[in-house]
Q: What sequence folds into this?
């Protein structure tokens, strides 16, 4: 336990209290949004992919109606917080990889991300550096993540926006024959669901990426 | 523009960000989570206030859900204009300002401390929160949390 009150902690409390007193938002709304932030993570999306690998009918539903399919993993996409959200989650799409097509997700405008089913963005996903360079040099940027794809594999970059969010459904890797849903879920990492990694037996963690600054912010 | 009308007091939206003394002091002297976690042997990757910060960003983008819903009803009834439904700090504006501040004033501050400083900077810039009020409130918060 950290028994020290940092200035950052005091600043967060102070600005929150003043914002509530000024009526910028209510204490109740803040509590609900914070609870939402505390319980979301990548497991529902990972489970969705694992179920799809095991069940062709469910896979088809994921590809044609991901909003309906997300209910099977406990996510109500259109009403994820249960009380309304500012982020207008109106569409969710699952991008199916094949042996010759690989998808990767970005938000070139800001940092739109399928939070109800995948949790909060990693820091690098928010940076102008990733957002600007991925669309220009997808193959090279993926290689920086340790994902070097053969030249014959086409790379498709999907740009998220406020209304439409994406997750990637990778190809089920060799070496997972006979695995159950829980086992498969463990190897579908956050990075795999964004498309900067491929699932691999024995790999259950994400990569730590060094941060680089962009010369100009993304919207310039 | 700030409440004082000085557009350069904290940034003009074109990348010419002017430091806010309180936030500069915190930037220089505040202990970030990575240091605290290391000193106290804590393994949590994020500080405990991170989800509250996320909740605050969401709430600011929404305004009060209940008040926005009420404003929407009035707007649909034609009794208020569309502007009354605007969020106090729209999501896209906050994110773009965070991008700019993260590349300038706060580029050496780690995440999520950088996100917090950027958010507060945006609020001060709009006059939604005053720097002097923050200074006074932080003092109270420190006293309150340190009381035994």
A:
């Amino acid at each position: 336990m950290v028994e020290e009150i940092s200035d950052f902690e005091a600043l967060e409390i102070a600005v929150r209290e003043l914002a509530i007193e000024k009526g910028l938002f209510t204490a109740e709304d803040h509590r609900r949004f914070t609870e939402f932030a505390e319980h979301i993570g990548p497991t529902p999306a990972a489970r969705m992919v694992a179920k799809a690998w095991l069940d062709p009918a469910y896979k088809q539903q994921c590809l044609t109606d991901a909003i309906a399919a997300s209910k099977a993993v406990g996510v109500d996409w259109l009403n994820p917080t249960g009380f309304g959200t500012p982020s207008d989650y109106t569409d969710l799409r699952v991008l199916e990889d094949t042996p010759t097509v690989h998808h990767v997700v970005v938000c070139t405008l800001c940092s739109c991300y399928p939070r109800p089913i995948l949790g909060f963005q990693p820091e690098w996903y928010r940076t102008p550096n990733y957002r600007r360079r991925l669309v220009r040099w997808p193959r090279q940027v993926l290689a920086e993540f340790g994902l070097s794809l053969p030249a014959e594999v086409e790379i498709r970059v999907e740009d998220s926006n406020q209304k439409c969010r994406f997750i990637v459904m990778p190809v089920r890797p060799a070496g997972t024959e006979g695995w159950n849903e829980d086992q498969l879920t463990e190897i579908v990492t956050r990075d795999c669901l964004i498309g900067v990694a491929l699932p691999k037996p024995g790999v259950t963690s994400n990569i730590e990426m060094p941060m680089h600054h962009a010369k100009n912010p993304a919207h310039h | 523009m700030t409440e004082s009308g000085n557009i350069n007091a904290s940034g003009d939206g074109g990348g010419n960000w002017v430091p806010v003394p309180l936030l500069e002091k915190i930037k220089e002297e505040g202990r970030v989570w990575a240091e605290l976690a290391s000193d106290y042997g804590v393994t949590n990757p994020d500080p405990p206030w991170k989800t509250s910060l996320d909740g605050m960003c969401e709430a600011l983008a929404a305004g009060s859900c209940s008040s926005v819903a009420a404003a929407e009803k009035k707007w649909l009834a034609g009794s208020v204009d569309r502007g009354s439904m605007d969020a106090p700090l729209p999501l896209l504006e906050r994110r773009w300002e965070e991008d700019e501040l993260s590349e300038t004033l706060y580029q050496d501050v780690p995440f999520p401390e950088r996100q917090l400083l950027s958010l507060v900077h945006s609020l001060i810039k709009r006059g939604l929160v005053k720097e002097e009020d923050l200074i006074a409130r932080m003092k109270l918060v420190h006293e309150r949390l340190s009381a035994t």
